[in-house]
């Protein structure tokens, strides 16, 4: 609950210059985010402030509450209502952040662009945000241009170094990726996502020991980071270097992932984990059930390869 309150307070900081009237709404949203559930939070908020369908602040603060409870689709809807009442760089920035969480990168890039056009200090953060959206879209040249624009303003050095590292990671220039993530860590050593990124870089260069160390640290710092847990389980179950494999631990981690998200990827890593323990029958059953539900033809082919190996009592070890 404290974390949700901090998220809303962070969102409120974007509106700090909007005046006393705005503060009433955003202060109420911050207090409401301390409630145990979103329904209670919204009731608390609506009982505290005056509802006004013509106020961008009323809807903007509601968007912050939804964002804090990770209901990003509803957050987008509320920010959109707010923007209909008053065009605002801060609201475009918030909606862009929600779009990023949803994976709607073209929409995020648009909103970051609208925020950047504001001409204020916010534009530098907007450029940094749009660079991230461009990276996800594979538009690396555009991302690099926005990173250069962002560098001339706000104090976002760690954020920008991370963006540079992601670009070089995705273009397979792992030496430069490592260089930039190291710089980011020097500026912000308490960010779990940076250790996760560095772990991925290490694993791509076949340094399993360092990768494991960084994945462990990322998970310890961000227990909600399912991507880090997935990669940790993948190393423990499929690493070609046997000394780094631990099937029993991989099973525990991948079971947790699969129980909350029974996706094809999580099914495959759970099956690989059981195979590493020697339980090939269990691995085969998990993969058969997942393959029957999978519609993606590429993943179906991957599953067939893994299934054949497990039926032959073989593990698959790959970087």
TrEMBL record:
Gene3D superfamilies cross-referenced by the UniProt entry: Tetratricopeptide repeat domain
Start and stop residues of the TPR repeats: 158-191, 192-225
InterPro entries in the cross-refs: TPR-like_helical_dom_sf, TPR_rpt, Ycf3
SUPFAM superfamilies, A to Z: TPR-like (SSF48452)
PANTHER family according to UniProt: TETRATRICOPEPTIDE REPEAT PROTEIN 6, UDP-N-ACETYLGLUCOSAMINE--PEPTIDE N-ACETYLGLUCOSAMINYLTRANSFERASE SPINDLY-RELATED
Protein name: Tetratricopeptide repeat protein
Gene source species: Seleniivibrio woodruffii
Phylogenetic placement of the source organism: Bacteria, Pseudomonadati, Deferribacterota, Deferribacteres, Deferribacterales
Pfam family, one: TPR_16
Keywords noted in UniProt: Repeat, Signal, TPR repeat
Record-linked SMART domains: TPR
Record carries keyword NAD: no
Signal peptide (UniProt feature, chain positions): 1-22
